[in-house]
Design brief:
By secondary structure, the protein is an alpha+beta fold. The chain has 3 helices and 6 strands, in the order ααββαββββ. The chain has a 6-stranded mixed sheet, with helices on one face.
C-alpha cells in the first residue's frame, strides 16, 4: 500500500464506484464509520456490506465529495486526513473534517476506523 493508492480509494468514494472501492478491501474487511450506536460508531463487516453502507452515505449527501485528502502509510498501518465538502442550500460550500485509520493486509485494507470533527462551542480554556 502506498499513500497514492490510498488516495485512489477515496477517489472511488467520490466517483461512487463501489465495485472498484471493494477491490481495495479484504473480503472480511471491518469498517467502523464515525457515526452509529456503538462506541466505535458502528461495525460493518465484509465487502458487500461496506459497499451498501458507502451507497447509503452518499444518498444522504449526494453532492458530497472528499477533498484535501492526505494519506500516510507506515508498514501495516495507515491514516488519511480529509474533508468532505458539499453545497449548502444557498450554494456556498460546507465542510467537515475527519480522518480514517487503516489496518492493512499487503495492498488491501483489512480494517477502517473513521473519525470526524463535530462543530460545537469550544470549552472555556481558562
Amino acid at each position: 500500500m502506498t499513500p497514492e493508492r490510498l488516495n485512489e480509494f477515496f477517489a472511488c468514494w467520490n466517483a461512487r464506484d463501489y465495485e472498484r472501492l471493494a477491490g481495495f478491501l479484504t473480503p472480511d474487511c471491518v469498517f467502523h464509520p464515525s457515526v452509529g450506536p456503538e462506541v466505535v460508531g458502528r461495525t460493518v463487516r465484509g465487502r458487500e456490506a461496506i459497499k451498501q453502507l458507502a451507497s447509503s452515505i452518499w444518498q444522504l449527501h449526494p453532492d458530497g465529495s472528499y477533498v484535501d485528502v492526505r494519506s500516510f502509510v507506515a508498514g501495516p498501518l495507515a491514516a488519511s486526513e480529509w474533508q468532505i465538502e458539499w453545497p449548502a442550500a444557498d450554494g456556498s460550500p460546507q465542510r467537515i473534517a475527519g480522518c480514517d485509520t487503516f489496518e492493512l493486509d499487503g495492498e488491501l485494507i483489512a480494517r477502517i476506523n473513521g473519525f470526524r470533527k463535530v462543530k460545537a462551542p469550544a470549552p472555556d480554556a481558562s
